[in-house]
Amino acid sequence: MTLVAVVPGDGIGPEVTAEAVQLLTEMQLGLEFDVLDHINADTYLATGESLSAGDLDRIGRAGSVLFGAVGDPRVRTPDYARGVLLRLRFELDLYVNHRPSFLWDERLSPLRDARRRHVDCVIVRENSEGLYAGIGGSLRPGTDNEIAIDEEVNTYQGVSRLIDYAFSVARRSVTLVDKANAVRNGGQLWQRCWREATRRHPDMQHHHLYVDAAAMKLVADPSAFDVIVTNNSYGDILSDLAAQLAGGIGMAASANLNPQSGFGLYEPVHGSAPDIAGQGLANPIGAILSAALLCENLALDRAASAIRAAVAETVTARRCTAEIGGTLTTAQAGAAIRAAIR
Ligand code: IPM
Ligand code: MN
After folding, report:
1. pLDDT score for 16
2. 235 alpha carbon to ligand 2 midpoint, in Å?
3. Are 147 and 138 in contact (CB under 8 A)?
4. How much is the pTM?
5. Predicted local confidence at residue 74, as pLDDT
6. What pLDDT is stored for residue 342 in this prediction?
């Protein structure tokens, strides 16, 4: 049995994660689940603790985590999300955030020109440093003279290993996205790592775009992109943009990976969506496609393909939730995908 930890979290996290877990269970893949459903905002509000040392141990013992979402309107500080999701990413050194976007059905694209709107790309987001490193501080907080500084951390090792991962998963091309024309030091470091990496991978096409131009081109012609590699904050923003181009954030999946240790944390790109939580409105596809990424990284390639084929079939037949043109609830949409597999 392969152990998979499950952290359903907050908001719609438990609903969508339940669909992914039930799907994997029914597929009989030899997975065993360790559910940590106490890791949520309720626990944080009651105890002040986001993630205990015991939780971290349990999660570390499993080789993978299926993660729902963190975030609750009652929690106003970033300490909570940082203490759960960012802590797992940083402490387990999950330096790759692999975020594929794929247009499952033509009618989900907001773009008019049919030849240009196909989406099948992966955003490879740096996940262990950048603006998320938590380095900085504030001076005279709470006053009119407040100064707040968040440093952007870019390391040669961190950037090089990320770019190598991007090349390792590319099928057609890799595009580096940065802002080297304005952000001098980090820009130069990324450019040096990029030049070296392109020499290590001479057979793959490569392109470079500044982030503003990349955002424009993603909307104008998403079919031009295969793998985009970028830093932590640009990757956060562009992956929401790419997700929307492919039919919406409810369908977007992600894997937080350390390719060396093999550890992975799999989560939908969407957040906890407190406004729709508990109403059966959440789309389980983001969580289910994250489970497909888990299968792929556990070498269960046939299971991953079967899940994707079932998603394609149900989306095309509109056996899906309302925000992508169906009439089903979260649980019914999950059941429709499981039925398509059988
Ligand atoms: C994501 C989320 C997180 C991030 C938040 C919850 C800290 O937006 O996974 O994209 O910015 O990384
Ligand atoms: Mn995000």
Report:
1. 98
2. 8
3. yes
4. 0.91
5. 96
6. 79
Q: Yes or no: say if 105 and 320 are a contact pair by the CB < 8 Å rule.
A: no
The pLDDT of 179-188, averaged and rounded, is 93
The active-site residue, picked from 44, 132, 165, 266, is 132
> Which of 96, 98, 236, 254 has most ligand 1 atoms within 8 Å of its beta carbon, as the pocket-test mutant?
236
Main-chain phi, psi angles of 312, to 5 degrees: -60, -45
The atom of ligand 1 lying closest to the CA of 254 is: 9
Measured between its terminal Cα atoms, the distance across the chain in Å is 22
If you average pLDDT over residues 59-71, what whole number do you get? 96
DSSP string, 294-339: HHHHTT-HHHHHHHHHHHHHHHHTT-SBGGGT--B-HHHHHHHHHH
Nearest CA to ligand 1 atom 5: 81
pLDDT tens digits, 248-258: 999 999 999 99
HSE-CB at 32 with a 13 A cutoff on CA atoms is: 6
Classify 170 as helix, strand or coil.
coil
